[in-house]
Write a structure and sequence with these properties.
448 residues; alpha/beta; Rossmann fold; 5-stranded antiparallel β-sheet; 12 helices
Length: 448
């Protein structure tokens, strides 16, 4: 009995109407000291109010079948993307209810005002849809759903605590991965900014014999097929297959810098996952290496169906370190793991020429054996500062320093090109498109 009363007591709340009714009764009793004829009215209002509270409580607590609530969570969330979540409500009361819902979302989102209001007629259902955008990979814990229900009387509120804690992992951006995969399969990458690259010559990977159409290279005419069929036939060629594409991700402190909620490491992880998937669709072999003060994870290049799952499982748990990157360890790993000439896409960040010069000897050694593509980031905050109107001498000083750092980034591109190393200097938000563009360009130009 005690536990039953405690259960009712802990889930029972008083509404604004209740306090308004109490205030009215107290006011009538107060004024009855000066106007005695109000005493009977005050008692009448009090007992009517008490009866309404009792009726309201019975309406909410007496039915056995009340409400049904379910939260529909995906198996995993996509980092850096808007993920849709759904909450299903159904009313089994014999009357319409006003409902307020609190979803205890993970603390990582730092949202304390996620409150949904709704009205449901008897026997109706409703689905509440909202989005969450995680900015860190890892495990996210969803708490209970807390539903607050009011009857048409509206004096008391009953709370329902639904469900228990649920853990949902946040993986690198697989929503973008699916989008790029579908476009790569259907050859529509140009719709999202992927450029069409003019081919220089053609590869030696034979595809098929087809009818000649205007614009085909006359040097590819297949004379034997032409003689058999009686009309011009040409050989067509496709990109070279089974080439090795390795993504190397720098996990040192230089990749800790945030941009729009995500760190540079998260941008690099999302881009490398998409690049690996596009490479697999193009029938190349994708591999992965992570590096900080020591070598992290290594996934040898392969194109089996499970390869992308292996890469995603590795990238899911990677975190930035707080030490400088060990380029000697990276060079040793590249020489021991990469057994043939490969495209090496190195995601890192340089903030000064001195930082680049420290790593340049090792980069030149890697570029001697492989096609090396360095991907590093523009500091968009510096660009904003250089475009900001100047108000005083301090602004001039700040703008000059910002312009100096921005100019150094461009000098780095030229310095790398001088040593025959390809590079991409990109804003974080355009990283994926720029990297996939360059990969397709390299494939079309047969540089690997």
């Amino acid at each position: 009995m005690r536990n039953l009363l405690k259960k009712y007591y802990t889930d029972l709340f008083l509404s604004k109407r209740f306090f308004a009714g109490i205030g009215l009764c107290v006011s009538l009793f107060l004024f009855s000291f000066f106007l005695p004829w109000l005493a009977d009215l005050a008692y009448l209002c009090f007992w009517i109010f008490a009866a309404l509270v009792l009726v309201d409580g019975l309406l909410l607590y007496q039915p056995k079948k009340t409400v049904f609530v379910r939260r529909d969570l995906p198996e995993r969330l996509s980092n850096g993307d808007d993920n849709e979540l759904h909450i299903y409500l159904e009313n089994f009361y014999a009357f319409g209810i006003r409902a307020g819902l609190i979803d205890e979302i993970p603390y990582q989102f730092q949202k304390r005002d996620l409150w949904f209001k709704s009205y449901l007629k008897s026997g109706t259902q409703k689905t509440i849809t909202y989005t969450l955008r995680p900015t860190k990979r890892g495990e996210y814990i969803f708490g209970q759903l807390r539903l607050y229900v009011q009857s048409p009387v509206g004096l008391v509120v009953r709370r329902f605590n639904i469900g228990s804690e649920v853990t949902v992992p946040v993986y690198p951006s697989f929503l973008q991965l699916r989008k790029y995969e579908l476009m790569a399969i259907s050859h529509r990458l140009n719709e999202i900014g992927i450029k069409k690259i003019r081919r220089i010559g053609h590869s030696m990977e034979f595809d098929q014999v087809k009818n000649y159409v205007q614009g085909d290279d006359y040097r590819t005419v297949n004379w034997k097929a032409t003689a058999r069929k009686g009309e011009l036939m040409v050989n067509t060629f496709t990109d070279e297959k089974s080439q090795h594409v390795y993504c190397i991700i720098d996990k040192s402190r230089s990749m800790k810098m945030p941009f729009e909620g995500l760190s540079l490491l998260d941008y690099a992880i999302n881009a490398s996952l998409i690049l690996s998937n596009v490479a697999l669709v193009k029938e190349d072999k994708a591999g992965l290496i992570t590096i900080a003060e020591k070598t992290g994870s290594v996934v040898p290049a392969d194109r089996r169906p499970a390869q992308l799952g292996k890469i995603m499982a590795i990238l899911y748990k990677e975190k930035t370190r707080y030490l400088e990157m060990n380029m000697e360890a990276l060079y040793t790993t590249v020489r021991s793991v990469l057994k043939q000439r490969s495209l090496v896409v190195f995601f890192t960040n340089f903030e000064s020429m001195s930082a680049l010069n420290r790593q340049l000897p090792y980069l030149k050694r890697v570029a001697k054996f492989h096609l090396l593509l360095i991907v590093f980031f523009e500091n968009t905050e510096l660009k904003t500062l250089t475009e900001k109107p100047v108000q005083d001498v301090e602004d001039i000083y700040i703008q000059t320093i910002a312009a100096k750092f921005a100019y150094e980034k461009k000098l780095m591109v030229k310095e790398l090109a001088k040593h025959g190393i390809l590079s991409i200097l990109t804003p974080p938000e355009k990283l994926t498109i720029n990297v996939v563009n360059r990969y397709l360009s390299i494939k079309a130009q047969q540089k690997i």
